Amino acid sequence: MDGIVLKVVYAILSLILIFNYGMLVIGVTAKIVARAHGRIGPPFYQPYIDLLKSISMRTSVHHGVMFWLGPVFRLTGGIGLYMLIPAVYGSEWLQNFSFSGDLILVIYFIFFGMLGMALGAGESGHPFSAMGIMRGLAHTTASEVPFALAIIAVAAQYHTLSISDIVAAQQGGIGHWTLMTNPLATLAGMLAYLGMMMHSPFDLHMAPQEIPVGPVTEYNSSYLALMQSNRSIFASAKLILFMNLFFGGATSIPEMVVKTFLIFFFCVFVGVVFPRFRVEQSVRWFLKLPTMIGVLAVVIYTVHG
Amino acid sequence: MVRKTIALALMSGLAFILAFILGDWSPMERLSGVAYDYVTRGAADLGAMNLVTAIVVTYRGLDTLGEVTVLFLAASGVAVLLRRKRDEAAATVKIKRAASEIVTTGASLLSPFIVMFGAYIFLNGHLSPGGGFQGGAVIASAVLLLFLAHPDYKLRHNVLNIIESFSGFTYVLVGLLGLFLAGGFLDNRFLPLGTYGTILSAGAIPLIYTLIGLKVGTELAGILENMKGRA
Amino acid sequence: MKLVMVLGAALMLIGFWGLITRRNMIKMILSLAIAETGLQLIMIAVGYINGGTAPILDSAVDKLSAVQQVVDPVPQALVLTAIVIGVAVNALMLTFIIRLYQKKHSLNISDYKDMKW
Amino acid sequence: MDKEKDGVLATIEEARKSFNEQDYYCQELPKTVQPVANKIVRGFYNWAQANSLWILGFGTGCGSIELPPLFTPRYDVARFGIFPRPTPRQAGVFIISGYLSVKTLKRVIRSYEQMQNPKFVLGLGSCTVNGGMYFDSYNTINRLDYYLPVDVYIAGCMPRPEALMKGFETLKEQIRAGKAEGANHYVENLEWYKANQKQIIKDWDMPEYNW
Amino acid sequence: MVNPIFIPVAALGMAFLLPVLERFGRKTVNVLFFLTLGFFTAASLIWLNDFFMANSPVLRVFTAGFKPPLSINLQVGSQEAMLLAAINVLSLAGAFYLLPHLNVTGLKARVLFLLFTLGMNGLVMTRDIFNLFVFLEITSIASYALIGMDVRLKSLTAGFKYMIAGSLASIFLLFGIILLYQASGTLNIDGMIASGVTLNDSPLIQGAAFMLFLSLFIEMKQFPANGWALDVYQAAHPGISAMISAGSSGAIFFALYKIFPLAGENWYLAAAITGSTTFVISNLIALRQRQVTRLLGYSSVGQMGLLLAALGFGFYVNRGRDNYAFILAALFFNHFFAKAGLYWIAGIVKKERIEEWSALRRNPVLLFLTGLFILALLGAPPFAGFWGKWALIMNLGREDTFWGVALLLFGSLLEAAFLLRWFGLAMRGATHDDIQPSPAVREIFVTGLFALISLTLGARFGYMRLTADLWTYVFPLILAAILFLFEGFSVYLRVMASLVVMLFFGFYLYPLEQGLAFYFSLIFIGGGLLMLLATLYQPRRSAGYYPLLVLMFSSMAVLTASKTQLGFFMNWELMTFSSYLLIIRGKKSRKAAWLYALFSLGGALAMLAGFSVLQLIRPGAELLADLAYAGEYGGVIFTLISMAFLVKVAALGWHIWAPDAYAEAEDDLTAMLSAILSKAGIWGLLLLAVFMGAPLWHSLSLNTVLGWLGTLTAFFATLYAIFQEDAKRLLAWSSIGQVGYIVMGVAMMSHLGWLAALWHTLNHFLFKGLLFLAIAGVIHRTGTRNMYEMGGLIKRMPFTFFSVMIGIIALSGVPPLTGFGGKWLLYEALIEKGWYLQAGVAFFASTIAFLYCYRLIHAIFLGIPKPDQLQVREAPFRILFPQYILIAFIFVFSLKPAWLLKPLSAMVAPYFTPTLGWQGDTAVSSLGYWNGTVMMILVVFIFALVLLNLLWMSRGSKKVKPFNIVYAAEKPDRPQTTHYAWHFFTPYQRAMRPLLKPLIRHFWQGVGEWTATGGSVLRRIYNGNGQSYAMLILLLAIILFALTAGA
Fold first, then answer.
1. Which of D12-18's residues contact partners 24+ apart within 8 Å by CB, and which partners?
2. Which domain does A276 fall in, by range?
3. C-alpha separations of B142 from B72, B116, B121, B131, B203 in Å
């Protein structure tokens, strides 16, 4: 019993940490992007203000039960995902609930929030919502393929699907990272990562100029607030996952901060440089180069056994 | 042209087959098998001089009954097919020319003799070449002659029918008598074999042949009449 | 007797030839009759024994040595049946032709192709 | 008029009417929502509202040409927490950029009503004050605040981006001071606003209040 | 004992006497006529009884008081008695049926009929070859006259062609007889056989045999010399056609059977070749035939070919002659009664073209009889044809005659194609006019009588074949028969009865099964019970629905209990036919059901072929377990047998039938098909794997092939699913894809793989049943299947929405619901097995599944409601109830996966070493771990927390109406344009275009078209010209000569 209470306490602490971290990452990134544009940019704590503003809105409208539940699903998905990933290797309080499932569980749980959100947005009846979801889903199916192949290659490499074990296997210097030991899988995974973060050039689900803000068009006030919170948690969880899989994980919080920030910056960097893809372009792109690399990574292990 | 070519090819094929089969055929040197038995014991068994008749009427009597049946069937078939529907009567056009006097006179003179000749043939079937079928056919030719001479000539249906039915039925009865009184169905020996070589010999053979003759005669006459078309 | 055999076979072939080349239905029937006749000749030929006489045990044939003198009576009996059956079939066929002619006023077999395939 | 065409029009009209009747629109009227009672929380919220102004991306007139420069390095309003937002559901600031034709007014009203409380209106340019150079046009309105509660007017034809930024400044002050209660004002005087609006908009084919 | 001679005596006596008796009036004549026929029937039935019940000695009758060969003898033994009984019953019934026709043509017609019957009797009884000729002539001449009797142009033409053919045949026959006589010196058949004269290979004797058999082959209507027969069947009065097709053909076949011992080796082969060619080609040509009577003609000719082939094969392989008597009898009587029945029905319906047979729909009795006879002709169990075909194919396999197997099975498939198309048109064709068939009681009576005889014979033959576990195998039929008694009562009573009998059957099976079999029968029976409950939502059900449902479910359950190949195959066929008959009840399901039947039958025939290959290596093998001894033929057998299962699971390449059938079947039936029926294929694959392991084809492991097949099926079917507009079609493709995963699992042949397969089997049942039932409810309320015509139904049907939501979450494998368990097991197994690439494709497929899942729920339930659906109500409780039972199961297994996984693990343990361990509730594989319970609690906990938070934050939130949306400051015009649902994934379609080419459909279409084209090219030889037919007869002579002269 004690163990469970402790776990819950640890989990809550861990969650607070990651929430704030996520908020800050978003804010700092916006600042950096602004600097790159030659602007001053919003303050690094702007995400907090926006969140607060959303909470402070006095009225809100909703379209029905599922619309209402959409953000709940979304946030549950984000938190749950984070809960399944051990954030820092060796740290007891940042292990979260990773004992309840392995990598397969994690990648399938990513869909939990997406599906719930899609259902909620769908009930709003706004055509842009449906279009945004369609684009998002279509794009995701394609970008997940190289990711899955990368994971399979990693699992084949380490003979395990447990994230902790994968991290453990990468300890002992940069030479042991998957980045070095399995560069093909890392490449495929990182290309897929670009798509999974849904940043430019893969932000086609909300395509500001075509279907403004996409699925969340009808969301407002407190509903929006929930999604803003999710954004920080979900993004961080994904960053940590990639860090664990390909970049040796982290043994301390600073190491985690540095590594995830760099990983995030990779996606921001690409996003600043490239314009947006169309749906079919994105799908085809992922199914060509990244998938080919992923297949190569997998085939190597198939042949070697 | 194509058709002819195909036909030619088919015919040469058939010719080849026939040649192959009959190529080294040669006539039998002596009787063998069942024929030997027929010849050696036929006369004694059945008392018929004409072995063919013995075979036709008794040994293979069932065939003959079947033969009669076939003829009967054909006659019935012709009758059924050429029956007139009510609305057809008006449609038939008469194009019948009266026969010349020579024909009519000849027919009147000859036909009784022809009938008598036919009767002779079937009555002597067990003694000499001939028999019920042949006799019947001869009788029917008399009818044909009458038709030629008198296109409007009408046969008396009832009489013909009764003769036909009676002779056919009696034939079957005679067969049954053979079954009950002698060795088997169509056995001619339930009547005494009589004196070999006389007309009242060979058991029931003359009787059967008579019945067959009557039946065949009436049936063929019926066919002829049906085909002629009723006036 | 070989001659009869060849004759019979030839008649059969002639009959078949007529059957598949003559368009006139009556001629076709006649062809069939010719083929049947050929067959009957063959049957008789089969039953023939060199130097044999008719299987009628009259004064011309000695009852005891008949076996050496007569030809085989069985084919003759069979031919008799075959002829009668042939007659029956021919009569029926002619009846069909009469009826067919009444329907279409044609004796050409190619005109009766209402049913095919 | 062609009878068949008439028929088609009639059916479309009928369909529209039936959708209105068939419960496709919420027919209720809004209520005023007072700010949080707790003074500290209210101040905190007002601060957040003031520092996170999301503009509805809806250029109603020629003045909207002045908006894009705001986001360039030269002016960079992002540093004040001002961002464009394409959907009224999430936006808090409505900039009426210049003259407002009758046709546009209808859309503006609909968009304004779809925004959530608190919401603010900036009248940009002289046209929103008194009609400006179009004061006698048959097709534009003269005074914006007959139809919507305006928080800040920015005069000029056209005002420069700097003036616009000044306007934002003023709005922020008002918000922080808790004086920007246009949304509640609109609800309280809904009857008057609706009467004014309906005077201009002849074919009023929408529900009384656009949720 | 009746003396056989009385049959000709009575016939002739009466025939000769009737013209005289005419004057006593029609009544007297009729009485006497029927008395005579009745005497025949009675006599033959007495003989039948004597020979089969009392084992009497064979009756031999010598005529003329002399022994054969001097005289002609007749013989009646057990075989003759069977034939005579059949023929005389046919004659009596046929005369009864034809009575008005006979009345029109008058007295003489009765004479003809009587003599026709006599001819057939004589053909059967006589033992003298010349007498045989005479009786053949009697039969023929009588039938010529009977055909031409109604003096219509067509029947006269046909009769004339028949006469030409008959005359040629009799010339050949006589030729043969006389040559044989010369060679053997006798005309007695027994004498000839005893003398062994035909074994001599002199040209004369070979020629004699040639002529003899040529003639009988012509009379048996062998290809190509059968154009005349088709015309006869088409033109003659159907009552007469029935007599000719069944009766005289049968008698002639028996005559051939009688003298076949005279034939030499070369003739066995020739008969086999000719027969099977005729069977295949006439069925092929029939594909393009639209004229009912001619269609039946082709079928008759084909069946004659089959009989001849069976005869030829029987002697060719020269072993197991008793067995061949069984086969011939089964095939013969099956055709005999079924074809007569079909002709009679054709006579009742009086519609020439098969398209017009939809008129039959109004008359359920006739429709039922038609279906029954067609099934009999197709060799469906329990009809005699089934047993005959099984035994024949097995024997052929044993003797290594696989070309025969191939030809016969191909022919059977073609036959199924046209017969079922005809039946489909009768069942579901468009109605053309309102003229309904008005059968007389008399006609229905005789047809029904023959149906009864067909069934009885089938039961009798089946009783001889099914030696072990008889009751288990026939149980489904008995259950269905019981349920037939409830037809006409209310639906509730019928469902109750169905539930009771199914439960009873479940209790019967319970002690017979354990392990995997138990698991599957649980799904089949338990699922069946649940689905039966769901059928209640439709207040009315057409006749036969529940018997067929129960038949389908129980035969599937028997599959799990089957120990013998025959029992398995029989129930497989029962399942196929019952599901076909159920599918065709859909409003537009004619083509779909046809395709389904064809593919299923094709698969079943392949299975048959597979079993026959096994016979080669293990003669006499009867048990399924014998598959383990397949040895070097393992690859072939595995491939062939798995074909049937692959069709049922609709694996890629064999899936063409599935989307249509699922979409067009009745809505609740689709749930059963997808949720339960497809599992039969899985059971089959498991069975194969259990017995055969992973056989090799050369060096390629077939399991790898199977695995890839499953993978690609999962992928492509899912891909197709997302572009469907029709909800059921979408779910159909989805179903195909999901079963693809199960196939993958089975193919892995590992503990984890099988666990994945088994887990997914149950799960697919749960969520796909749930989804299909929910959609059935929606369709029931909205009346459309097109998703874009719906929208916003969440507000009207919240409970259904919840079902669908749970269904898609479970389907897509999102944790924490059960679907994830299957995915987890699958990937663990795939990676453990080293099938990395397959795992990648599977993953891709499973992400694509999200697309259609979302589309399904979005287009139907979310978005904007359509005006005409504003008033729809929630689906009926009767269909919601089973859904919520399924949901309950889903939740239970989500919360406690161990409750299902542990027993499954134990079931698989006998076959593979377990690689899945347990730590408390955590399942641990060699690669990873998964704790469903914690996961579920975690998710529920977080969800509740967030939910409470939002509840507080969003207090006072205003609920708005559908059109209160941000619409670019505009006002939505119509729901139809605002609800984004039609062509939902167009960009994705554009991106995936290269993968979407329907190559397989084109391939099968090509196969179909080329086959039909082959038929239409071949049928040109039947140009309608009697002279050409004569030429074809001569051609047959030459062909046969070429075939036989070589030896």
1. D15/E867, D15/E974, D16/D205, D16/E973, D18/E867
2. 2-304
3. 19, 10, 14, 17, 29
Residue E172 pLDDT: 94
What is the dotted CATH code of the domain comprising C2-55+66-111?
A: 1.10.287.3510
d(CA E142, CA E118): 10
E159: enclosing H helix or E strand: helix E153-184
Mutation for testing the B interface, residue in C59, C69, C95 having most B CBs under 10 Å: C95
Collapsing DSSP to helix, strand or coil, E465 comes out as helix
Q: How many CB pairs under 8 A join B and E?
A: 197
Amino acid at A294: G
Supply E10's token pair. Answer: 């009575």
pLDDT at B96 over 80: no
* Six token digits for residue D169: 């400044």
Instruction: pLDDT band for B51, please (50, 70, 90 cuts).
Output: confident
Which residues of chain E fall short of a pLDDT of 70? 317-322, 432-434, 1046-1047
Mean pLDDT calculated for residue range A116-135: 90
CA E386 – CA E514 distance, rounded (Å): 30
Rounded Cα gap, residues E851 and E869, in angstroms = 25
* Tokens linked to B83: 């029956």
- Helix pair angle (E836-861, E751-782), 10° resolution: 20
Q: pTM of the full predicted structure?
A: 0.92
What's residue E773's pLDDT? 94
Q: Is E917 helix (H, G, I), strand (E, B) or coil?
A: strand
Q: Is D78 on the interface with A (CB under 8 A)?
A: yes
* Chain B residue with the nearest C-alpha to that of C55: B51
Residue D57 at interface with chain A, using a CB cutoff of 8 Å: yes
Q: Using 50, 70 and 90 to split pLDDT, how confident is the model at B90?
A: very low
Q: Give D22's pLDDT tier (boundaries 50, 70, 90).
A: low
Q: Could you tell me if B172 and B16 are in contact, meaning their C-beta atoms sit under 8 angstroms apart?
A: no
Q: Checking DSSP bridges between strand E958-959 and strand A61-62, what pairing results, if any?
A: parallel
Q: Which residue has the tokens 């709003």?
A: A124
CA distance E137 to E170: 8
How far apart are the C-alpha atoms of D159 and D126, rounded to whole Å?
Answer: 9
**Tally of domains within chain D:** 1
Nearest to E239 by CA among E64, E73, E85, E104: E104
CATH number of the domain bearing residue D176: 3.40.50.12280
Q: What is the pLDDT of residue E433?
A: 66
Asked whether the predicted pLDDT for residue D4 surpasses 60, the reply is no
d(CA D176, CA E987): 47
Chain-chain contact of C85 with B70 (C-beta, under 8 angstroms): yes
ipTM of the complex: 0.88
Confidence (pLDDT) at A1? 52
Residues 772-811 in E contacting D (C-alpha not used; CB under 8 Å): none
Domain hosting D168: range is 57-211
3-state SS, E54-74, equals: CCCCCEEEECCCCCCCCCCEE
Q: From the list D18, D23, D89, which residue is nearest E966 (CB)?
A: D89
Residue D183 token pair: 């949304």
List the domain boundaries for chain C. 2-55+66-111
Residues 6+ apart with CB under 8 A from E281: E223, E1018
What ranges do the domains of chain B cover? 2-86+96-228
Mean pLDDT of B187-203: 79
Where on the phi/psi map is residue E982: left (φ > 0), alpha (ψ -120 to 50), or beta?
beta
- What distance in Å separates the CA atoms of residue E357 and residue E585, rounded to the nearest whole number? 16
Return the pLDDT at B231.
Answer: 45
CA D173, CA D164: separation in Å to the nearest integer? 14
Spatial separation of the C-alpha atoms in residues A159 and B96, rounded to whole Å: 110
